[in-house]
Amino acid sequence: MSGKLIASLDCGTTSGRFFIFDEKANVVASHQKEFKDIYPRQGWMEEDPEELVASCIECIDKAVEQLEKGGKYKKSDIAGIGITNQRESTVVWDRKTGKPLHNVIVWPDTRNTMTVKALAKKGGKLGLDALKEKTGLPISTYFSGVKLRWLLDNVKEVEEAHKNKTLAFGTIDSWLLWRMTGGLEGGVYKTDVTNASRTMFMNIETLEWDDELLNFFGVDRSALCDIVSNGERYGDIKYGDCVLNGVPIAGLIGDQQAALVGNKCLTTGEGKNTYGTGCFMLLHTGDKHTISNHGLLTTVAYKPNANAKPQYALEGSIAVAGSSIKWLRDQMGVIKEAAEIGELASSVKDTGGVYFVTAFSGLFAPYWDDSAVGTIIGITGYTTKAHIARATLEATCFQTRAIMDSMRQDANLESLKVLRVDGGMTNSDACMQLQADILGETVERPQMRESTALGSALLAGATLGLFGWDLEKPETLKAVNTAGVDNFEPSVSKEDREARYHGWERAVKRAMKWNEEALLSQSDDE
After folding, report:
1. CA–CA dist 84, 10 (Å, integer)
2. What is the pLDDT of residues 268-282, one digit of tens each?
3. Strands (DSSP E) found in 112-223
4. Distances in Å between the alpha carbon of 481 and those of 78, 302, 446, 455, 520?
5. Are the C-beta atoms of 352 and 383 separated by less than 8 Å?
6. pTM (2 decimals)?
7. What does the alpha-carbon distance between residue 12 and residue 432 come to, in Å, rounded to a whole number?
8. Are the C-beta atoms of 49 and 56 separated by less than 8 Å?
9. What is the enclosing helix (H) or strand (E) of 356?
10. Cβ distance 404 to 441 under 8 Å?
């Protein structure tokens, strides 16, 4: 199939993006469109599910228009597409009408804090870890099953649809796939193993919905779709006058697992860290899952096709990474453009003793504290906005260090084979150097960093038999993403590194449990 192209639709937290790749993973055309984030109350974050679909379709049409303007390719050269998506974000709609019953509840949303407390109580002595053996996850505001429980308890239309067995629940992959393949007119309603592994409804051993888990949450199986692998021909695009109608959708995977695949971390001990709105570090642990004893998540990494063995990963999730830079820009006016933060942070040699715990949505791995709050500590008359900027970058780097320490212990590794990085924050050399210094590890940054989109494109290409790609044979991907890498080596002493990290740990302790009384008060009010 020489000359064919493969594409990827990446529906992220803040925007939709569509990339068209050639067989060496060169991007030959792309388009991006931002979504409107909706903040109805403090701690709540929503998006319009219809806007997500419309924006993604616009990205497809505009990217194909750009492709054909180039003159080298035409739309018929696109053999298929993969879809990758923001995980945990929750969509509910009615099977009969096809209409959403609520806005998307986006993954950082913490409205369900009291739902978590009620479920932890239900879990008895194990509390938040009551479902960990089957799901690999602690009970947290983060996961989509907990969000669904909140919707069932608080939104009448959702409760009634559930009772009448017309409720459709899904993550963004399910919603996009269903809408893009026809919706009420024969739309394909499925979810993949990576997104399903973040619901708390799927058994990570069997890769099937689990009756015991569904009973725990009080969710009827009729609200759920089928679970499939990450590489299958799910259906063809059938959406209005979309320019790619008739093109097969052949890859489906959550964005962080897609980045693991796109970075070609396909053997045990390889890991990646994606610095996006949040920050997500995954370590490939092979075809056997490892339950963490140090605050990490156990998740499905990918299942390349229906007949392949699933691969697993340990994951550390950070709720706030790139969004802290956006906060400095939009809320505080410290910088005018996100790209300025690296230069500002590099204008000082250290933070002047300032630590910024960016717990805007509580703290995720390895701390798991919903009541933690954002905290800047160590401010003196000497502190400038440059120190704050540097502390903002360091916050993500310190949290990554905490996650890596947990990974080393859980996986019994002295160090990772490789840590590859991608995402918006990696554009800053200053940030990546700080990361290498704080980790004491080499950080490898590919020059082609659209790893999330590439991961779903690789799955779709392999499914369709393109270019000889086969994720079960990593050697077939040697020609993929070979633009080169930038390596960042540690440049500080171990003593300096450990002293700075000790300061971070002290700051985290100050931030944790800060909002606990307010949350308990909220519980009393309800």
Report:
1. 5
2. 888 899 998 889 999
3. 167-171, 190-192, 202-203, 208-209
4. 19, 19, 8, 11, 50
5. yes
6. 0.87
7. 22
8. no
9. strand 355-357
10. yes
